[in-house]
Amino acid sequence: MNQNKKLLEVENLTLQFDTDEGRITAVDNVSFSVAPGEVLGLVGESGSGKSVTAKSLMKLNPGNAIYSPETKIKLHLEDRSVDIMQLKSSKEMLVARGGSISMIFQEPMASFAPAITIGDQMVEQLLIHTDYSVVKAKKYSIEMLDRVGISDPDQRFKQYAFELSGGMRQRAMIAMALSTKPKLLIADEPTTALDVTIQLQVIELMKDLVKEFGMGILFITHDLGVIAQTADRVAVMYLGKLIEQGPVRDVIRNPSHPYTQGLIAALPKLDDLDAPLVAVAGDIPSPLERPSGCVFHTRCPVHLGGQCRSMVPDFSSVATGHAVACHLIDVSNVQQQKVAVS
Amino acid sequence: MLQFARFAFTRAFLAMFTLILVSFIVFSLMELVPGDCAERYLAFKNTQGSGISLADIETERIRLGLDQPYLTRWVSWIGNAFVGEFGNSCILRLNIADLLGEKFYISLGICLSSLLLAYLIAVPAGILSVTSKSKTLNNSIRFVSYLGLAMPNFLLALMIMLFSTIMFGDSLTGLFSAEFRDAPWSMERVADFLSRAWLPVFILGWSATAFALQTVRALMSDEVGKLYVTAAEARGVTGRRLLWRYPARHALGPIINSLGFDLNRIFNELPIVALILTLTDAGALLIDALARSNDQQLAGAIIFLLTASIVALNFITDIILALTDPRVRRSILG
After folding, report:
1. Are B232 and A103 within 8 A, CB to CB?
2. CA distance B286 to B305
3. DSSP-derived secondary structure letter, A289
4. What is the arithmetic mean of pLDDT over B147-153?
5. Average per-residue pLDDT in chain B?
6. How many domains are there within chain B?
7. What is the ipTM of this complex?
8. 8 Å CB contact between A136 and A222
9. B191 in the same domain as B74
10. What's the whole-model pTM score?
């Protein structure tokens, strides 16, 4: 893969929310990129800032969100590059909202308006983003429903979300998201609300479609198992910071950050049913009491004390394309070379 | 179409059943009051100076049909009630239908106008206040709304009367000017009525608006935070279309549902306002019948008519909901 050709480049994304209790940092200096045809998995616990990060790409965060001036989100399309932070009017924003970026959400039931048919919502989107006539938009929507494996698409087109099964709804959501031929698909926990068997079908479907449409996918989940099946690269987030990123196999086989190690150890093991369940010790701290230094030091089983409490660790490379932000890595000198965050 | 007719018919049947059930409760309550119509009338006669005997009471009882069994009397009462015939008032000895006559419809008209006024203001104001970022607008809407909730209607009525008396020398009481009070209906009488009826409509509508505003605000703030609104925004839906087609439309169902309840609440407030403004409406008559003269026949008739209005309104809102909300519609039509 040509490393120079990126689809999405996020640099120094820092996002705070202005609330009654004060300013809360939700995302802290996060940088990552997605190449065309690549699936980047973004992993973290609830509250780690992964959904907020995803919403930033569409500027969907509420009015009290404050982006730092250093924040850069660049979307490289075939003919031009778009600086998403600079988009102002709702017309300019269309490219990021359903035009070249589409998003599918965790709960397919809740993400369709309950009293509007699935077809109407699909056609509405097509009329906003294309110059299709209503008739053409309808025909194309039905084709898309058919493409994602929905049986009897003519009938489904006229139905409401509550009339479809969970798996059907998520397929319909995918069909709607892809109907505008986006370059980047953001999937925010798309399989979390589904049965395991349906999960697999939806994941397979998404993988097929990435190849067919040549899109990049930002796949957000808390489920490392799903990431292992889906992603090419993985980025692990904790309390608004990226702490480790790299090729998915490398990160899962050789997790280098104590938090990633904890997450992997916490996965239930089907081959050893008597093994005790392991949890990452402690709870995710309140965003109002953000730890100083390394944000993970309050829960870190192997932290070094003063250094971890006071200094924010930089990224160090541990293998090709695999970087970790942890003082332990600095100390053990696995590789001193600081890598530019790719 | 056939299924819809079946649904409407079922709902109408249920409404009727509710009404019959309520009528039974109302009738039973009327029966539970000590003494019956015959005794009460003759006791009333007694206070006017005429002597009565047990035989007089018995004759009166037979004349009124009060010797019949309870259920027989209920069946005949309810049968007559459905055709608008409520017999005679215990005390006044006048036909209740004549006595109530236009008064009930005027009261109902005032209540329905207040309800209409309330929602005409509350729906747009409530929706705007949820979506607008203007703090001034939001705070003023909240202030007016709390004022409406907290200030008793009668106080508002008194203040307006006082103001009007000082400024215009007219206390604005009553529903008609003196010269039209007992006149037959005419264009002039309608004009006179409207020139006065706005005041009770305004006063009742004031608190009803405040209440409705709270409902609309709560329902809207619920809807705007829902995922499907974010999802629509993420698809590029913006502006007014995003507001009205998504959260506003979905918040309307429960609002429609609450109409029947609101009508009841407004009617409950009517008597006090009517007392202050000396309106001779059904609300004032109900208080009089219940509290002062213990006239069960009259009170029963008013309560029955009120219940019938609320049941009818609920029936209408059920039908509207079935037409507008696909979740309800599909559950009926399959």
Report:
1. no
2. 11
3. G
4. 84
5. 82
6. 2
7. 0.85
8. no
9. no
10. 0.78
